[in-house]
Amino acid sequence: MYSLRLAAPDDFDGWREAARGLVMAGIPPEEVDWLVEGDPVPLFGGGAPPAPPADALQPRAPRDFPELARLVCRHRDPARFTLLHGLLHRLQRERGLLDDAADPAVARANAMARAVRRDAHKMHAFLRFREVRVEDGAPAAPLPPPSPIAVPNDPAPARNARSVALALRDLGRLEEAGEAEPLPEAPPVIAPAPDSRFVAWFEPEHHILRAEAGFFVRRFAMLRWSILTPELSAHWDGQEVAFGPGARRADAPAEDAAEGLWRAYFASIFNPARLKPDAMRAEMPKKYWRNLPEAQDIPRLMAEAPKRVAEMVARGATPPAERRQRTVHLPAHLRAPQPEAPAGVEAVMPADLLTETLDFPEAQAALRRDLLARNDLPPWVANATQPVMGEGPQHPLLMFIGEQPGDEEDLKGQPFVGPAGRLWNKALEEAGVSRGEAYVTNAVKHFKFTPTGKRRLHQSPDAGDITFYRPFLLREIGFVQPRLIVTLGATALRAVSGRAMPVTKLRGSLLRDPEGRPFYPTVHPSYLLRLPDPASKAREYDRFVEDLGQAAATARGLP
Amino acid sequence: MELREKLEILADAAKYDASCASSGTEKRDSREGGLGSTEGMGICHAYAPDGRCISLLKVLLTNACVFDCAYCINRASSNVRRARFSVREIVELTLDFYRRNYIEGLFLSSGIIRSPDYTMEQLVRVARELRETHGFKGYIHLKTIPDADPALLAEAGRHADRLSINVELPQPASLKALAPEKDAGQIRVAMAGLRTRIDEAKEARAEASVTRVALAGGRRAAAPRFAPAGQSTQMIVGADASTDATILDVSSNLYGSYRLKRVYFSAYSPIPDAAAALPPAAPPLVREHRLYQADWLLRFYGFTAPEVMAGGEGGMLDLEVDPKLAWALKHRAAFPVDVNRADREMLLRVPGLGAKTVDRIIAARRVRSFRMADLARLRVSLRKVAPFITALDHHPRGGLLDRADLRTLVLPRDGLAERNAILPAGLLARPVQLPLFAHV
Lengths: 559, 440
Fold this sequence. Notes:
heterodimer; A: 559 residues; five-stranded mixed sheet; 20 helices; B: 440 residues; six-stranded parallel sheet
């Protein structure tokens, strides 16, 4: 039997050094006693293990073993070092051992690591500092002087004595009159003084303080603090952490000025109608309660809850407040419930009437309003963000009509801002048409898609969708009054012509819609994006640019 | 009014918002000044007896409100006492609580006063004070007012880790009926706007880091910061007649369309001063719980919406058993599943096997054939999985899966305990311990 002594209960480096030697010397775990500095010397303790042979191979371990071992070393189980030694021993032959979570030793090590991680997490969560003034000793890290806090300086309406009195009585009431500017207040309640020290008492289950001190340094680097535990204490003065001997509960301050507010918050944020004490205890076990100032209120809150709920239910609905909050400063559209727009408004209005009675922006706005007011929108519209209306000048050279908005268009509320739109833009420029000469819109005004987890897959509009939106499109064409319409793809072609027609056969020819207006069909730019090989992509793109140029030339020649 | 009284009123007014998460933001700390840190993991500093995590100081700036939403305790026509914090009071409370390690940061919301812009400006001012005057590095979650000016939203995103806008109710029609001043369409447009900004900031940061690598040692490009912990929303369950199917459909649509980090379900809870349109009733906690479970199956277990709903009736989930078990009971032909051979997708369908356990089984299968004792060492509840699996030493008793009373056999033994020890609080509460939450 051999004995090894580590410098501290969480001495991972010491364990690793020693364990490597043991594995190289071929000493099995059951022949080693692990002791920690301060442990009594065992009666039948063995001596130091022999040095490994000079030609022994360095022990090997998978990448995730050191991290696991580091955590396990912090566990309070005295058998932890032997367990780890055993794992390192077996890892020399069983390379994939750590992947076998069902192996008893691996399962045990995993459970220990989990317990240590949980303990650390609970320490980050449940440790509570109390502020004390340290009279002697200058602060090692002087705090910056408290900065002046700006007081709200909105243009507040002049107050008369009565309104101030009212404000003192009930700020909320005053809000009705729109003048509840917060009143000047008392100076800060509790700011850390330069001689403040924040002291916490915590009882971890495992040997985690040394490892977790860094968390508190990163978080509270500008404060001076001490964490006291039964076996070790940590002290931060702005430069480095000093570790000292363990402490007693009584060494920590017994109260803090902020605790009253914190307990008030804890009690108020609790919803008595959702009492679930088991869920609370699962996450915040009772053993932590004695060091949590807010926990002393739990029994009372639980006891009162059923009565509070019964009272609420028994009271039922209450009549509305006599002096309800007024809406003086609210923009008109938010002030009152918006009147129900008439449903199923006749969408096809004589185009000439509209263009005569409404100016262009108003005609555009009216189209959008009327579309939104319809109560017979296709059901899939509920999933779209917003209708995407056309953009561009009135009387443009060309009016482009696409299929429907895509993902980006739906989010931004603008047509042709997605990948296909960008391609169209580029082609338009190459065809020598400026954006100022083009109006762009879609045959279908909402984004139709299939939701698939994180992506929204474009779904082509069907005949019914095209028919539904067609009157809106015709009305739009009516007030836009383009020289020439260019339909992009099959949907637009169908919407303008009123029937299904083959794009590839008709592209590049000048057609007339049922009203006799000239239009020019070509492909949709998204078709170019879908082409798989670069050669045909380039060819088709050139043809598309050619089509656009041809359309512009045709339009310029039209009366 | 005393500060303590204000705190009581304005925390009480904020408690119906389920969100309290503090996870998923960038890493920062105060070693170079200021106060606080975020390390990616959310931390729940306390739990209230309602089982909910207390991670942030969750308060309203004011509970005065000009909107008259029937479900809300702060509605214009409510008789509740009104209070208002000054910017300075909230800043001080946040710092004082933070220094004592009570909280991870602040979740600030507000009633609508004067105008959306005025209200948003006040919220932004608190965040700005904390960040700029006090160098606060902790977590900030701001409620966003849909109508507010884009410049205010941009500043909110610069200071806050997370922004949220509540859709409130699953369907626009219910919102119209119960919250006449709110506009479902506008809420969606605002969420879309946030998503666009969040995406752009993320892309800019990714590009900036590529540039940094390329210029090794060159100057650090300043990428605009916008809500690095993303956006979330909340839907009230049980205040209108929406079915579970509708709620799940809406929530997956919201996840997909606006890349939300979380859609919170909040059982409509009685409030002390109820409106006539919504008289007080016990909150549907079990239903809320089942919705969370179903949502989980949809997002992380490869279930489709019809599959999840197949376990229930009439568009409502089975309240008695969890949706995964409900599905299994209706698809017995798919079982038993051989734990030593089945693929990941099928293992994920076994009631009682979580995603993490499934991954462990698959890793361990390379070196071991599973017996029941091996599963027990992975902390699997054997009672729960036994009818649905085979292992080296386990083949479910003949006909177990064919028994008409299988449902009663696998029902949680203590139905009441299951009902009380309900998970959603735990789920909400423990964002970091579940791997599924890693990106939340």
